[in-house]
Amino acid sequence: MHLVNTAIKLVTGSLLNCSNEFAAIPPAKDFLTHLTPAFVLAIIIGSILCLMTLIIGITHALYISIYVTHPYRRAFVSYLAGTAPFVSAFALVSLFMPRVWFLAHLMSFFYFSIGLYFVICLLMNLVEGRHTIVKKMGSKSSRLSVATPPFCCVFPCLPTLEIETRKIQFCEIMVMQTPIVRLFATLVSLILFFEYQDGAILALKILDTICVPSLLAGIYGCHILVTTISKLDELVPFRYIVVFRLLDIFLMFFGMQQPIFDFLARAGVFGCGTILPPLETAFFWKNFLVIVESFIVSLISTALLKPSRSALFDKYPASSASSAASVTSMSTQESTA
């Protein structure tokens, strides 16, 4: 019975007995005038890293606008390239304005959910649609692999399926429903939070739990399509799998951090707080970590997806030459065979 009560406290309350636990979150002006050295250092480092992430993001946007020809492809790549700057900027605002942390989390998650759909739109654009996929992969006797994350660990013996247009379309719908459901959840969450503040925490957790199957279905649909279609040789010059893995891993870390820091705060890891309540103290450090992760993702994407290495930048001289050489090589191999 004691374990049950403890578990309930960790979900709905806290194991701490702090006099200021339910104190109101201070306005930005009061918060910034009573900062401790640790908070000051975090804000300074976070500001520098966020600024560098934004500069890298602007550079990416310029290169994309200049060297990517296809308008739809340019739009998809631009959105995906904006993920790290967008998330980092909202996290930085939350460092300066603690009351904004919930809005920042919701908007960043919503951005990620749209990114899941856009990364599949980019894939379809690169391979020229479902019918082309079925034709090319059917000629190679390839099959649709459904033993992919996040369900392959639970169901490791899932079969492969015959590739058909309707099955690919169904996987696309699995991905597309994620931002739609997330939009509805975001609007409801904002209404609950602004109306009931801390009193809505339990309802918000229930709503988040209800939305988990939608997110998992979207991720599953993404992995099925990418795992299957990335076998096409035509995708290799674009380094598409790098684009997908960066978004996938970034989303995984971002999604896991919120419940982990929430649990740690309620378990008493961050104490009773000094200028912020325990939960907001935890989310302050969570947002600082998000800024660091965003900067790392920006650096990795810059190194792995620079125009000279990816055929996405088809107007870039080195990329065009590399793509042409790759196509020539593939044609030679086919004629030899």
TrEMBL record:
Record's keyword annotation contains rRNA-binding: no
Membrane spanning stretches: 39-64, 76-96, 102-123, 173-194, 206-226, 238-256, 285-305
Record's protein name: Organic solute transporter alpha-like protein
One CC-aspect GO term: membrane
Entry keyword set: Membrane, Transmembrane, Transmembrane helix
Xref: PANTHER family: ORGANIC SOLUTE TRANSPORTER-RELATED
Source species of the chain: Panagrellus redivivus
Location in or out of the cell: Membrane
Membrane topology of this protein: Multi-pass membrane protein
Pfam families found in the cross-reference section: Solute_trans_a
